[in-house]
Phasin family protein (Caenispirillum bisanense), 151 residues
Amino acid sequence: MAAKTEMPFDFDVTKYMSELKVPGVDVDALVATQQKNLEAMTAANRLAFEGMQAILKRQAELIRQAVEEAAAAASGIAGASTPTDKMLKQTELTKEAFERAVSNGREVAEMMAKSNTEVADLLNKRFTEVLDELKGVVAQAAKAAPGTAKK
């Protein structure tokens, strides 16, 4: 079990901000916004990590499959009776391997795109929420500040 690291000082952001007494600033809302930002970044990192894990797992499966197919292809070519049959078999196997490689590359690229889209969507959603929260804070500060007029 990891030992708890003791900090040489005790710093509470909420307490510090409330002591500043900045008019129109809701410290609790500010702290809540930053907490939501941290949660969104944590979720985005988790999604990115899980996506990369799935991609690496699939690539390992594809490599294993390619090695097995190469071994089977080698025995298939060796089993051909004439040089012409060997050349035809090798050409056929090369074509199949190329088509499989293109298909596998497309699959992995689609997995990457899906993972990236999920992460970007999550971050875009949070960014929109931050703008809405900022709009609310500014509106609240305008109401609280004396002598401000709406234009």
